[in-house]
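Human: Respectfully, please carefully check these tokens:
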Amino acid sequence: MKPTSTHKSHVTSLSSYQYLGGKAVTSKLCSVLDIDEYQDLADVFNIPRGTVSTWHSRETTPFEIAIRSHLATGVSLHWLLLDEGEAFPHINTSMTEANLDTLILPHYRLKSGQLAPLSALSFDQVLLKQSTNEPPLLIALQTATATLIIDKNDTLPISGNYLISIDQLMSINDIQRLPANQLVLHYGQSSVTIAQDDIEIIGKVIISIDHV
């Protein structure tokens, strides 16, 4: 005898999805988990290394691994499996209910000139108040030597370190403004003068926290 129910679903049909597979998924997993080699996924998820190779050769979608990643990190399944939206869309630059002095920041590293998402970063708002009086739009960027707090609302290059994009490749560079909308970009011991329109300013580094 079938159980009776007073609830009636209004869903008449569910559309199918075109899921990503193979390296399209594993590259995203490596980015979220801060892994450089595909085969290291086997160690993280405790699976045979040959399984990862099979995903690549057969363009397989590792659904169970995707769900485990979502539960562990909060990464969006829409982003991971469908390439839609942001990796962590629920993360905003806002105060948490638990601690009004703590900001939860989107957190990235640069990989091949692109922002690769990491787990969210908690940040003490007291440090921010000492650095700026303007309402910021913040992200955190992990480098080899420091964690940088970047204000994406500050896109007018005057003087300081900025996250910039040249030919759709991002980097952190020291910039000094010159007359006639000219900028001096410093690359290590070298520098070059370019027009402001030749680059895109993503945001300014307002705080740098050196790694110990």
